[in-house]
Amino acid sequence: MPAAIAPIPDFPATHLAFRDDAYETSLTARVIGVHEHMLILDQTIFYPSSGGQPSDFGTITRDDGVSFPVGDLRYLDPAKTIVGHRLPESEDPADWANRVVTQTLDFERRYKLMRMHSALHLLSVALPFAVTGGSVGTEDGRLDFDIPEAGFTKEEVTEKLNALIGRNAPITERWITDAELDANPGLVKTMSVKPPRGAGRVRLVEIGNPGEEPLDLQPCGGTHVRNTREIGRVAVTNIEKKGKQNRRVRIAFA
Questions:
Q1: Is the domain covering 15-105 a CATH 2.40.30.130 domain?
Q2: How far is it, in rounded angstroms, from Cα 189 to Cα 218?
Q3: What CATH architecture is 109-253?
Q4: DSSP class of residue 94?
Q5: What is the pLDDT of residue 150?
């Protein structure tokens, strides 16, 4: 478990640039604060660990050329609006205050996470049961389902999942208010991870063609590809019984 973070002071929200364009690989920002040896920038290209998706990797480089590797990022407030970027212990936070920095993303790794995260959304369509947990990886991923009896094979789920991927459906986003989400609780598939509240709105990720019934529509703050065809073929590698009604379904890139 990550170390506890002290209560966050009153910083402005970080502009989450990875939501504007998940394919962007470089971004300039300004350091607006430091909290618990974590830099707070006015905007970030890096996704912080949340919702089963791990933190991005990359580098942050100061305007005088000093840089450090990025890998430990997290939201510092319950509403998930302020992002902290962990400095190495060898770095003095005072040296970074108010500096202009360049963020460079390890996009090869990010793109694998985008593909896998989108594939897991479609897995929740292939298996339309309540999701109790999940994890996104660069080579594989999993979802845990609340299923009394499985009644299906790895091969059957693989076939259904690849058929959905083969639909070449756009993956887009839109926003609704907290009140709209309250009025449509069925949008939340993941029982163990609730959408962050406090910002007044919730991001929905939609898979499907305009004018048609969506293949999938659910709250999500993660990064995704633009079209299901980018996912590529996947295979269900394991279906494991984790409890009386819990089945863990793991998938990997084929």
A1: yes
A2: 7
A3: 2-Layer Sandwich (3.30)
A4: G
A5: 66
Q: What is the dihedral of CA 207, 128, 212, 228, to 10 degrees?
A: 30
Walk across the sheet containing 67-70 and list its strands.
67-70, 58-62, 100-105, 26-35, 38-41, 83-86, 73-75
What lies within 8 Å, CB to CB, of 183 at 6+ separation is none
Predicted model pTM: 0.91
Which among 23, 249, 214, 216 has a CA at the least distance from the CA of 118?
216
Q: Are 12 and 20 within 8 A, CB to CB?
A: no
Alpha carbon distances (Å) from 222 to 80, 88, 158, 180: 12, 25, 23, 20
- CB distance 138 to 113 below 8 Å: yes
What strands lie across the sheet with 171-177, from one edge to the other? Answer: 171-177, 201-207, 216-219
211, 152 contact by CB (below 8 A) = no
Residues in a beta bridge with 101: 29, 62
* pLDDT tens digits, 54-108: 999 999 999 999 999 999 999 999 888 999 999 999 999 999 999 999 999 999 9
Residue 223 — very low, low, confident or very high, per pLDDT cuts 50/70/90?
very high
- Give which of 226, 218, 121 is closest to 168, Cα–Cα: 226
Alpha-carbon distances, residue 129 vs 36, 126, 144, 171, 186 (angstroms): 40, 9, 9, 21, 12
Helix, strand, or coil (residue 210): coil
Question: What residues form DSSP beta bridges with 33?
Answer: 40
Domain segments of the chain: what residues?
15-105, 109-253
